Amino acid sequence: MIAGAEHCGPGGCKLRIAGVSKVFDGRRGKVVALEGINLNIRGGEFVCLVGASGCGKTSLLNIIAGLEFPSSGVVELDGEPVTGPGRDRTVMFQESALFPWLDVMGNVMFGLNLVPGLTRGDRLAMAEKNLELVGLKECAHAHIHELSGGMKQRVALARALATSPRILLMDEPFAALDAMTREQLYQDIQEIHLRCGMTIVFVTHNMREAVCLGDRVVLLTPHPGRVCEEYFVDFPHPRDINSSDLAALSSRITRDLKGATA
Ligand SMILES: Nc1ncnc2c1ncn2[C@@H]1O[C@H](COP(=O)(O)OP(=O)(O)OP(=O)(O)O)[C@@H](O)[C@H]1O
User: Fold this and answer.
1) What PROSITE patterns does the annotation carry (predicted)?
2) What's the pTM?
3) What are phi and psi of 40, to 5 degrees?
């Protein structure tokens, strides 16, 4: 499915999350969404955040993105504190959030328009390479409404990768897709990660998905959101979501989650 991936992100970055807590002032008082989160993520690592609903996965992703600020603690990317959103971190959501008035190529080029020093030719070449990377080179001039849900997420991925972010943040990007489309995307994202080696933080409810994709699975427990356990997954890539090894590990993590929240 994937072809021609010579253009890849720089990959080598390091994310340090130290003593991060987040307290929201909700309508019914204060909500401690995260407490004392410490995580070091090495350059090129694929880390999946899992846990029960409300354990703070999205809050943590938003803090890394610079969309939310921690109540205490710091997030550093390659030693630089994260103080707001930046082109070095791209977020991909469950909904593709594509611009319907632009075609596929226009969407992928959108972020590149904001990168200084690129000619139109540079931007076109980079967009084409990334569309090829996600297997959609032939659809460059399709309208967004002509695409399936899986194709839209591929375009969103090409757009996210086009600006060569140092870190890719993914919040349940495949949750709204049917099982067959998801399985194909699991293969594709593993292949893209193997080729490009970018750092990825990926939020999911789906344990199988987490152990299929992640080098490490971080289990959070809720109220307050804390790191409960970390699992280093050393099965070689590409992994098959239906393999019995993955089933056994995902069952173990699910058991641990149930035990921790019982
Ligand atoms: N803006 C906000 N104001 C008040 N409380 C919030 C806000 N955002 C999140 N919360 C609370 O913080 C906690 C963590 O929410 P968060 O969305 O990060 O969890 P999650 O693990 O991503 O949940 P889910 O898996 O259901 O998406 C929840 O109790 C939530 O209600």
Assistant:
1) ABC_TRANSPORTER_1 (PS00211), ABC_TRANSPORTER_2 (PS50893)
2) 0.92
3) -115, 125
Q: Which atom of ligand 1 is nearest to the CA of 225?
A: 14
Q: How many domains does the chain have?
A: 1
On whether residue 154 sits in a domain, the answer given is yes
pLDDT per position as a tens digit, 212-239: 999 999 999 988 999 999 999 999 999 9
Range of the domain at 127: 102-163
- Of 20, 23, 24, the residue with max ligand 1 atoms within 8 A of its CB, to mutate for a pocket test, comes to 24
**ipTM, 2 decimals?**
0.98
E-only strand ranges, the chain: 15-26, 29-41, 46-51, 72-77, 80-81, 89-92, 167-171, 199-203, 216-221, 226-232
Q: What does the alpha-carbon distance between residue 193 and residue 66 come to, in Å, rounded to a whole number?
A: 23
* 189 located within any domain: no
